[in-house]
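Tip: read the tokens left to right.
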């Protein structure tokens, strides 16, 4: 027994107990918050990576279709790529667009407009490709516009 404790309180000193356990619990709580933050950052990084990949795929589809249009005859361009006539160029574009999530024959279909260009033998092309990632309510869009002139 501690003489000082007996003199002051007239009862024996108790040793401090539970302090280490409390410190361990606080450290575990701080560590758990850190792990949750890391998991959230990882999930956000994966989502941004997937968005970038889908956008790159959409750009590839759009620019591939524009490249095919540049190689085609400008006089038959509208009939080959006409969505209502389901021309061969349009069907190829739709098949490529179906690689993107949420695209089917009826859902998130690309839009394509071919109108007269600034010169007599040219055509202006407006192409939009849409996709919808899984678990995302938003529909994403990649658009391009170009002028295709006769060679």
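Filled-in amino acids:
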């Amino acid at each position: 027994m501690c003489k000082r404790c007996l003199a002051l309180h007239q009862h024996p000193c108790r040793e401090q107990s539970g302090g280490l356990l409390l410190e361990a619990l606080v450290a575990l709580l701080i560590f758990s918050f850190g792990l949750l933050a890391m998991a959230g950052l990882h999930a956000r990084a994966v989502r941004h990576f997937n968005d970038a990949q889908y956008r790159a795929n959409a750009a590839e589809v759009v620019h591939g279709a524009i490249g095919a249009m540049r190689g085609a005859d400008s006089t038959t361009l509208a009939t080959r790529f006409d969505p209502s006539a389901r021309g061969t160029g349009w069907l190829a574009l739709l098949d490529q667009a179906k690689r993107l999530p949420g695209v089917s024959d009826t859902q998130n279909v690309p839009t394509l407009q071919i109108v007269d260009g600034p010169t007599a033998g040219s055509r202006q092309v407006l192409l939009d490709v849409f996709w919808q990632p899984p678990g995302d309510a938003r529909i994403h869009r990649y658009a391009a516009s170009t002028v295709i002139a006769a060679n």
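The mean pLDDT is 88. Helices lie at 3-9, 19-71, 77-80, 88-97.
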